[in-house]
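User: Reviewer 2 asked us to show a designed sequence for the structure in our supplementary figure. I'm pasting the structure tokens here. Could you produce the per-position amino acids so we can include them in the response letter?
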């Protein structure tokens, strides 16, 4: 079944169109439901947690879309299966029992959509049940009150689960939720961002989890009264922080609706739009309603135009296309249905300004400004330590880096809506190293340690970082925007001779991979129909090369080629200065005019003479 509503592509969806979209998205899952309805298994791949938790995911995550559908009066013919599934999954005597909630259990994550469904759709999921059924469900959910959970966005899962029970009149240990709320507030930063825990990164979890859940909680606490005498200062803080965050987050979206591929859990796909829906549900419009609606709908439309479904209509694992190589160990076959969180606005009446707004959905290349408004050419974002640039409607983030375990997803120098990024697939060889957008060092030029576990920060508005791949080797890097180019400055200090490989942007390559690529002294170029990627050495004697990366390792394209620079460095201090360009459409005059290095004082100037960077 085609999930895309049959409408004029330049006319906004109606609320009825989106209702039908939700029904079409979840319909293929019914064929994969267990006889008792409690477990859904749409695929055979495994995750790091038990199959029963993966199958609970398949039951619970569609509720992110179905609950607001019901709250807004939309019809859905399978509520009886969800009621039966909730009964059986919480019944210790049933073969489909989900088992008690334990410390750090994946089941905690799935409590959030169940709690929200109880709050938004009690007439579908709670009221038709017997008193005994309700007692068993209550006992099972309340198991979350006394377990240990990660000190991160997971705290929202417990809060929403307990809020859901309170919404149907059940007594809970609300003091546990209050402790979680206090802790969640501490993750907030002055610029509106959240960090995902005391040592967490800044990524989409700030948008689709920490902010969206805060906005949803504020709505439940205010309009639906699930909290007695809610903390008004807390609710105001959630809303004000979201308003500030919106001014940054809007810059992560390209003109065509695609969003910046960055960080982990990208298989949740159009959950990227959940924040805009969360603003609507909470009645917040820090941007004009037409722009909020456009960001939301244009993103959904982009996603639904990509090959993200299996032959049976189930959301696949991967990002823009199916591939397991870019997923995480906690991704099960049902994990992508976190994307249903994008449909929170269905809980709103048709008269709400979100639905009455008139977004401009004309093709991006026909628009006079970005998403109907003028956006900054460059936007510095303090908490995530990045500079986001925009050129020809495409978005690139220059990133200082983080100290995480997902180096390819957080620690490359640049991430792009047009080119995506690649992950490593093996320990040997440049083609397997995920070298695009990053720097790799090794003693033989093939066994590489790529940039990771980075200490990153902003200095004078520029991303700066320090990386120590070995105890006797350190690399300090500065990133300098020169849109559509950017410049990377590295100070390499080593007590041993090393080989280096530095990569530019990866480009989707056609079947015939030899044409459209050029290797030369101090530069490499890839020029395919999908885009242009150039890397130039401005400071030394590195050699250009083009590498065909391992297939299915890029989040956007199954096959990619990347231009790289190879060098060899003796012990001591070396300065590497690299100019990098990536664009889908570009005049030759721009491609051939990179920023230039003036050796005196390590000064970098743009082609028109503007000083971009200077360090003594």
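Assistant: Here is a per-position design you can include in the supplement:
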């Amino acid at each position: 079944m085609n999930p895309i509503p049959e409408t004029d592509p330049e006319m906004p969806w109606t609320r009825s169109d989106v209702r039908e979209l939700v029904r079409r998205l979840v319909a293929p899952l019914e064929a994969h439901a267990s006889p008792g309805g409690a477990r859904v298994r749409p695929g055979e791949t495994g995750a790091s947690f038990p199959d029963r938790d993966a199958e609970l995911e398949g039951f619970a995550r569609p509720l992110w879309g179905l609950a607001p559908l019901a709250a807004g009066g939309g019809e859905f013919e399978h509520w009886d299966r969800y009621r039966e599934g909730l009964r059986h999954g919480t019944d210790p005597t049933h073969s489909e029992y989900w088992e008690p909630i334990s410390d750090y259990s994946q089941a905690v994550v799935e409590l959030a959509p169940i709690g929200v469904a109880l709050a938004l759709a009690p007439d579908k999921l709670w009221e038709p049940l017997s008193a005994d059924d309700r007692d068993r469900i209550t006992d099972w959910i309340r198991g979350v009150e006394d377990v240990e959970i990660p000190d991160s966005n997971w705290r929202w899962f417990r809060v929403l689960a307990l809020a859901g029970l309170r919404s149907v009149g059940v007594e809970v240990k609300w003091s546990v939720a209050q402790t979680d709320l206090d802790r969640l507030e501490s993750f907030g930063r002055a610029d509106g961002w959240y960090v995902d825990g005391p040592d967490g990164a800044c990524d989409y979890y700030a948008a689709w989890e920490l902010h969206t859940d805060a906005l949803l909680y504020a709505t439940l606490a205010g309009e639906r009264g699930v909290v007695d005498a809610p903390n008004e200062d807390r609710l105001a803080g959630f809303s004000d922080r979201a308003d500030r965050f919106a001014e940054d987050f809007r810059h992560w979206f390209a003109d065509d609706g695609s969003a910046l591929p960055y960080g982990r859990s990208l298989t949740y796909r159009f959950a990227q739009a959940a924040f805009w829906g969360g603003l609507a549900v909470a009645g917040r419009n820090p941007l004009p309603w037409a722009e909020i609606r456009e960001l939301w709908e244009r993103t959904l439309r982009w996603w639904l135009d990509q090959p993200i479904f299996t032959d049976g209509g189930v959301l696949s694992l991967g990002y823009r296309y199916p591939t397991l190589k870019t997923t995480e160990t906690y991704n099960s076959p049902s994990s992508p249905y976190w994307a249903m969180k994008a449909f929170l606005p269905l809980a709103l009446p048709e008269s709400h300004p979100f639905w009455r707004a008139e977004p401009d959905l004309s093709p991006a290349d026909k628009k006079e400004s970005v998403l109907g408004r003028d956006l900054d050419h460059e936007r510095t974002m303090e908490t995530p330590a990045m500079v986001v640039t925009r050129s020809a409607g495409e978005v690139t983030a220059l990133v200082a880096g983080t100290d995480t375990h997902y180096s390819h997803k957080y620690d490359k120098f640049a991430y792009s809506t047009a080119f995506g990024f690649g992950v490593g697939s093996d320990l040997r060889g440049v083609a397997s190293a995920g070298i695009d957008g990053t720097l790799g060092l090794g003693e033989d030029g093939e066994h590489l340690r790529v940039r990771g576990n980075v200490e990153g920060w902003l200095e004078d508005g520029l991303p700066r970082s320090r990386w120590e791949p070995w105890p006797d080797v350190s690399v300090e890097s500065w990133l300098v925007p020169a849109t559509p180019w950017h410049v990377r400055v590295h100070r390499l200090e080593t007590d041993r001779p090393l080989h280096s490989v530095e990569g530019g942007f990866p480009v989707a390559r056609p079947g015939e991979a030899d044409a459209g690529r050029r290797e030369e002294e101090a530069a490499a170029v890839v020029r395919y129909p999908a885009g242009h990627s150039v890397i130039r050495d401005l400071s030394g004697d590195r050699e250009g090369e083009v590498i065909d990366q391992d297939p299915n390792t890029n989040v956007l394209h199954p096959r990619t080629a990347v231009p790289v620079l190879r060098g060899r460095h003796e012990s001591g201090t070396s300065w590497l200065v690299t100019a990098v360009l990536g664009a889908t459409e570009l005049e030759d005059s721009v491609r051939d005019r990179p920023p230039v290095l003036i050796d005196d004082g390590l000064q970098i100037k743009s082609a028109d003479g503007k000083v971009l960077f200077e360090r003594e």
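For the response letter, you might also mention the following. Confidence is low (pLDDT under 50) at residues 368-372. The CA atoms of residues 53 and 106 lie 6 Å apart.
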